[in-house]
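Components:
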Amino acid sequence: MAEFTHLVVVKFKEEVVVEDIIKGLEKLVFEVDTVKSFVWGNDIESMEMLRQGFTHALMMTFGSKDDFNAFQAHPNHVEYSATFSAAIEKIVLLDFPVVAIKPMPT
Amino acid sequence: MAEFTHLVVVKFKEEVVVEDIIKGLEKLVFEVDTVKSFVWGNDIESMEMLRQGFTHALMMTFGSKDDFNAFQAHPNHVEYSATFSAAIEKIVLLDFPVVAIKPMPT
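Structure:
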């Protein structure tokens, strides 16, 4: 079964301490076993016109859509979602099965 | 040195055959050696309110920012960018060094 990715592109509110949000997510992804990987980044390169005010990308991968659903329903995720939502100025969120064209070497 | 990610979130124009765009990208990532991985996906899950009309995510990773710069400057990339740009209705693009919190098992 294809891996499943939960992708969040976000601009946080100005007063938000992004490190605190990341720490909360770090705690969450280790609490929930079905999260296979979690990586994030702060855009430093793209043109403002293309970035459109978004500053951070957060990506979680799961072994399957079922594993993703288990994460979504997990009480710790539900709880942290409230904190995360309150920190957001704008967001784009995509959930999709991953199609790997040129896979990472393993 | 941290890996570097080139992330594109996009809505293609209605008349675009997405498979053709992906085929072009597939060709490109095998032509340019510095592209370490390329995965993509078509959102099937998120709420329309959060997806905001975007439908596809495309992610390329590179071993370093220098490798990403080499890709950006590669003539095949420059050439394909024109085709890609013409297919886009809207786009968000982020380029960032990857911070891995819970890495994929290797």
